[in-house]
Amino acid sequence: MRFTYYGHACFAVQIGQHHILFDPFITPNELARHIDIHQIPADYILVSHGHADHVADVAAIAKRTGATIVSNFEIIEWFQAQGFQKVHPMNHGGSWTFDFGRVKYVNAIHSSKLPDGANGGNPGGFVCQTAQGNFYYSGDTALTLDMQLIPRFARIDFAIFPIGDNFTMGYEDALVAAELVQTERVVGVHYDTFGYIKIDKEAARKAFQEAGRQLLLPAIGETIEM
After folding, report:
1. What are phi and psi of 12, to 5 degrees?
2. How many CA within 13 A on the CB side of residue 162?
3. Which CATH number fits domain 2-225: 3.60.15.10, 3.40.630.30, 3.20.20.370, 3.80.10.10?
4. Mean per-residue pLDDT for 142-170?
5. Domain coordinates of the chain in residue numbers?
6. Dist CA 9 CA 32 (whole Å)
7. What global pTM score does this model have?
8. DSSP symbols for 52-108
9. Is 7 helix (H, G, I), strand (E, B) or coil?
């Protein structure tokens, strides 16, 4: 399984021949100005919630690639109103088996409003079970005890958590989240993009190391094997 980080909370996971892209926010992100969205492959685009910093490039990439957009019911309705028909709506607690694996849409504590002010539904995260391993992307969220339910659904090989604080968990809470979902490896996202979420990366890595866990902070554009 290959993981590619595209900045902020956007990343892709390649599972065999399938490319799954999450929360694409690239063209408005100054830190990701070297990333060309026209070169990003996508068979599916999974959207955790409706904020602009998670949906900015969904339409452009879906139109070019023909990717299926997967999100909550309200966000899918919003994209359908724009003419997108390759979509799959979900809601909290529901699961669906796609050709790359099984996805469960789980709770997140955050807010969700689409860029034009439309209702973005309730924010969520995704538990993905695949033949090459299982992972959990929490989406933007606070630390919540709901996370302790995740290991009941799947053994988590790695998790993707926001660590920038202020709008979401900071790295200290992300470390607790790793304990709740029983994973040793965390990929940190949603940090450094804006002034409110700049962090001390070395302090974050050290906190995880001292707790016997690993915090991965790939560079924007970097691909790592998971």
Report:
1. -130, 145
2. 29
3. 3.60.15.10
4. 97
5. 2-225
6. 11
7. 0.97
8. HHHHTTHHHHHHHH-PEEEEEHHHHHHHHHTT--SEEEE-TT-EEEETTEEEEEEE-
9. coil
